[in-house]
Amino acid sequence: MTQPEPEIVEEIKAANQRFYDAFSALDISGMDNVWENSERAMCVHPGWTPLVGWESIRMSWDRIFQNANLMQFQIRYLNVVVQGEFGCITCVEGINSVVQGNAGSFSTFATNVFARYEDGWRMVAHHASGSG
Amino acid sequence: MTQPEPEIVEEIKAANQRFYDAFSALDISGMDNVWENSERAMCVHPGWTPLVGWESIRMSWDRIFQNANLMQFQIRYLNVVVQGEFGCITCVEGINSVVQGNAGSFSTFATNVFARYEDGWRMVAHHASGSG
User: In chain B, what are the domains?
Assistant: First the structure.
C-alpha cells in the first residue's frame, strides 16, 4: 500500500462529483456518462435490494428521477482509496430533497467505486445507506 | 473491461469467506488477518456512521464480538468485480444471530472491497446495510 498520487485522488473525486451533478440535475443521460454501462455494475439505493447490471440500475435512476422534484447534495469526503485502476470513495451525502411534493433534509453514507478507462473514471458500484 | 480470470474471482471469494469465518467465530485476531491494517481501511456497519482507519474498525469488531453470543452467515453472491489489484464483491448476508441474549434471523446487503498483496487479498472496505 502506497500513498496515492494527489492528482489521481482529484480525478476520482471529480468523477464522484459528476455522479452527484447528474443526480442533482435528475439527468439520466448524465448517469449514462458517469456509470460503467456494464453487466458488472452494481447499485444499492438506501433500503433497496442490490441491483446488478446497468440495465436495471438505469431503470432505477429513471424511476427516482421521475419521482423527484428536487435533489441537492453537499458531499463530505471521509476516505479515498486508490489501487491501480480502481478507486473507492466513502462520503457523507448531505441531502435536501423534494420527492413527490414532500421536502426532506437528511444525510446518508455512500461507498462509491470507480474503474479507470482510457477516457477517465467510471462508477462501477454505488452502495448508499442511511444512518438509522 | 474484460472478464476476470475465474481463479482470481475464487481467490477474492475465499478472502470474503475468511471475513465471514472470522465474524462467525467472533475472532478478533482473524479480523486482524482478513483486513488491511491501514489508515485507509473503511467500514460501515448497518446503521453506524462510517469508520475510517483500522484502529477504529478493530475497536468496533471488539465491541460487536463482546455483545454477540452467536453469529452465523449464509452468503449469497450477487456480483464480483475485479480490476487489476482490486476486487469488489456484493453479497447478501443471511444472518442468524444471538446478540445480548436476543435471537434474530435477517438479511443484510454488503459491498466488500479487497486489495491484492503479495501474500493474498485483504479487505479494505466493508459497507453493510439492511433492507428496511
Answer: 6-130 (3.10.450.50)
